[in-house]
Each structure stands twice: as C-alpha cells, then as structure tokens.
Amino acid sequence: MSRIMQFCFEVPPDEISFHSPCIVETQAYPLYRPKEMMQAVNQGGKIKIHMLVDASKTKRLERFLIIGTGHQIPENLLESIRCVGHLLMNDGQFGIHVYHIETHPEAGQEAPKKAKLTIEYSLHDRVTPVAAGEIELSMTLYCARHIGKLQWEPSSNQAGPHKVHVLKDSFLHTVEFTEFKDRLYQDPSVKAMKITKLV
Q: What's 115-197's CATH class?
C-alpha cells in the first residue's frame, strides 16, 4: 500500500507579518515531488500549504518564508527558496508570497548537529515586557540568515529552554558566533545559557 499521503500545514496567524519577512516551521514527513506537488492557498483568511509527503520516512523540519509585496528577501535565502504560491489576504489589501526554504542536501536527511546552545529567559527581568513571539521571531530570523550553519528549536514555553543547534564546527569559532553569544550574555532577560559539544 502507498505511504504517500496528502498533508496540510496551516500557518499560525500570529506568526504572519504583513510588514516584514517571517519564517515559519513545521515538522513533516519528507516531501514527495515538492517542485510539482506543493501549493499555498488562502482558505477563509488562513494561509494553508498543501503538499504530498512520504509517511514511510522519519519526520523532519520544513521551513517556509512568508513575505509581503515590496519587501526584501534576505540575500542569503535567494539561492535556497522556491515559490509555493502568491495570495491576496484581508479582502485583497495585502499580497503575500510563500516560498519553501530548501535546506536539506538529500530528501529525508537532517544535517548532523555539532553543538547546541541552550538559552533560558527570565521574561520578568526585562525593562520592556517581551511581546508574544518576540524571542521566537528574532531567533528564527537570525538562524535563517545562517541556513546550513544554525537551526532554531524553540520551546513550547516562551521562557525556554530554547535551543540553537550548530550544524558546522567551523561556525563555532567565527567572530560572528562569538558576537552572537556576547549579545545574549548582555541581554538582561537571559537567565542562563550553555553550549554543549556533540559527538
């Protein structure tokens, strides 16, 4: 019997911005012929992405870039995105464009993780209250700028612990990664942070 099944991912409304690019993620079985069989639709004001998946394989993380007309696509994503659909939202007031971020070297394979950075936040210590989703959005966008090097794994609890997976050993020793850690150390809302090397 075929293990190919129809899958629908509904983009959470609170993860969509009409004013800046956003990246959304879902755990799904590996996509089956994504270049032909994937489509984004506006269903009752909700963005849904329909695709065929292979349920015989292990689930993996899939990422999508949601961007409005007139906004700039992050330069580092230009070579790794493929259009899934163009939608009109809010009774035609906004044009939204959905792209699949193709990050996996081979279907069904996840990039091996070299290290993980665990972050815990104390949300009440911040001078300005943390808006819902602020941490997830900023970290998702940062990791998206380093596709193939970093992978963001948020916790269901906003305070954490959240994880940033490092996919390349060489990135651990870059000035950019050091500055990234320094910014986290200086953030008064960060309660604890630990980096763990993986074998």
A: alpha beta
